[in-house]
Structure formats: C-alpha cells, structure tokens
Amino acid sequence: MTPQEMKQLLKERGAQVEAWLAGCLDGRDLPPRLRDSMLYSLQAGGKRLRPVLCMSTAAMCGLEPERVLPFAGAIEMVHTYSLIHDDLPAMDDDDLRRGKPSNHKAFDEATAILAGDGLLTDAFFVMSGLDLPAPCVLAALREFALAAGSSGMVGGQEWDMIFTGMESITLDQLRLMHAMKTGAILRASCVCGAMLAGADAAALKAIGDFGAALGVAFQIADDILDVVSDTETLGKPAGSDEEQGKNTYPKLVGLDKSRELARGYADSAQAALARFDGREAAFLAALADYTVNRTA
Q1: GO terms for molecular function, please (predicted)?
Q2: Fewest C-beta in 10 Å: which of 7, 240, 253, 277?
Q3: How many CA atoms lie within 13 A of 200 on its CB side?
Q4: What pLDDT, on the 0 to 100 scale, is given for residue 239?
Q5: H or E stretch covering 96
Q6: Which residues on neighbouring strands pair with residue 97, listed in sequence order?
Q7: Which domain holds residue 177?
Q8: b/e per residue, 64-96, with b = 16+ CB within 10 A?
Q9: Would you state the pLDDT for residue 46?
Q10: How confident is residue 55, by pLDDT bands cut at 50, 70 and 90?
Q11: CATH value at residue 149
Q12: Backbone angles phi, psi at 97, to 5 degrees
C-alpha cells in the first residue's frame, strides 16, 4: 500500500470516528457546561490513531470495521480524558492542546477534571453495550481496562511524574514508563479489535506484538518531534519536555540514535504482521512507517 493510499484510508476511518464522537453524548442528561467541556476536547481533532487501529485489526481478522466503531470511539474517549488530565496544572501544566487552549484554560480546572472523569466512565458504558458476542466484548473490555488502569496508562503517568526532574534514568526505566503510559493503550487498541472479531490465540499474540512495537516507535517519534518541530506544527508547546525536565529518548541517547531506534521498532511492528495478508495488513504496515515519518 502506498503512503497516499494509507493516508486516504486513515482519513476515511478517522472521519467515521469523528462522526461517531459528535453524537456520542446525544440523548444524555448532563449539565450543559460539562457537555460542552467534554465535546470541546473530543472534537479538537487529532489523528484518531487508536480507534483506527481497533477498527483495522478487527477488519484484518474478518469483522466489518463498522461493527466495532462504538468500541473504537470509546477508546478515543479514554485517550481524550488522559490528555485533559495530562494538561492540568498538577500534571504537565500545558496551556495548548491541538492548537487550542487546553480544557482547563477554556473552561476551568474543576470542569476539566470532571470532563475527564465523565469521558473515562462513559467510555466503559459504551464498550459494554457493543452488539457483538458477549464473551468477545467482555474479553476486550477487560483487556482495555487493564491497559488504561494503574498497571498501564495511569501507572505510566505516575512514573513520568516521578522521573520528571531526575538528573538521569536508565533506558530500561524509560522503556517501562513509555510501555505503560503510551504503549499499553496503543497495544490494547490493536488487540481489542482482534478480540472483538474472535481472533485465535496466535493471531492475538502477533497483533499484540505489532501494537507493542508500534507504541514504542510512536513514543520515540513524539520525543523527537518535541525537539525538532515547532508549536504551530505540533499544536502544543514545542520544547516542553526539556523545559519540564522530562527524560526522553533524545535526552538519553541523542537524536540520531533515537531515529534509529524508532525505525527499528517500526520494522519489528511490520515483521509481526507476517502471518497476515490483504489490504488491512498492508494498511497497518504502512501505518508503522507513517508513525516514524510523521511531522506532527
């Protein structure tokens, strides 16, 4: 699959996610300001990579991607909650997100916290109601909850806070933090799509390996972009990692080695797809290239 074809399919599936997110709170009775705050961040744009991964691995395993769209959209709800909370003064204290004022700047800190809480909790309500065989839904729900919780994304954020400002950490410590904070959700997005499609253990193992490698490549690329890009392109403050005393791949091993590592993990992600063929596998392989070559 050519890069242009990959970007077109990514755009098409991203648009499906956008349309679902626009209506995900319809018919719900909640305070207007809270609704506005939740939708403000949900509709702020972004690559929609995680829900697209869920839809694409489901399709690769034989299930129409539209069948998992609500679950995939709920993954984006969880991702959005994490961004709202990451930007809070008590965390990264960022004023910009995707080129717009952060949620706590556009509304207020208390509303931003509640918007994140609402998105997280509502996501699992959506996931649990998916119209697919109950054992598949339950397995995927448990997988994603584990990735989002204290031994996954939340725990990774805690390690990030602990490591921030430390003079130096080891590469193994950095890998652990990123595997939890970023990699766990990316991997689960891939595995959950396959689980919802009823994939067998061998397929789940391969897709999990793909997602784990992709997650590392994505994070290294993010670390690099914070150094080499600018605020307008990123849609968030460039150089904030260094300013906040974050430990990153460029800080530990330099830019050239970071680029080499990102490419290596992208290659590993592509190798994990060797047992699959067809359009969806080609799309995911091209997506691994895009992950390390992107500019924002």
Answers
A1: metal ion binding; prenyltransferase activity
A2: 277
A3: 3
A4: 65
A5: strand 96-97
A6: 100
A7: 3-291
A8: ebebbbbbbbbbbbbbbbbbbbbbbeebbebeb
A9: 86
A10: very high
A11: 1.10.600.10
A12: -150, 120
